[in-house]
Amino acid sequence: MDRRESPLGKAVRLYLAGTPVEGAAADAAHVMRCLEADDWETALILLGDLGDAHPQPPEFWGLLADAARLMWLQRDADWYEWRRGEARNGALRAELCLLPSEQGGREMPILPGEGL
Fold it and tell me: How far apart, in whole angstroms, are the C-alpha atoms of residue 85 and residue 43?
């Protein structure tokens, strides 16, 4: 598959179209260099970070989810689908600060994929 027609290549174009900030072209060029070097996972991570820095449309996150599935990264695909839903429906984010166990906080870790 042509790198430009891959889900990540399409996500780069979508990023460029929707990000009118200085440095967006340099960021996109960095991702494309990763794709040319067949470093797909780094390109995916970079695009996710770029999407965090500058709001992206749901289609962007869907392309990242598709790319993660092609790389057999199901947890990443699930996360990008979640982000797609946030971009489509809106989201409220809050930071959770837990107390140390010495101060009455939780003594057991919260494992990935589990909730409180």
Answer: 22
Q: What is the C-alpha to C-alpha distance for residues 87 and 60, in angstroms, rounded to an integer?
A: 9
Q: State the Cα torsion 18-24-30-34 to the nearest 10°.
A: -10
Question: Please, are residues 48 and 71 in contact by the beta-carbon 8 Å criterion?
Answer: no
Residue 1 in this model has a pLDDT that exceeds 70: no
Question: Can you tell me whether residue 55 is helix, strand or coil?
Answer: coil
CA–CA separation, 100 and 36 (whole Å): 45
Q: What percent of the chain has pLDDT over 90?
A: 62
Alpha carbons 111 and 2: distance in angstroms, whole number: 38
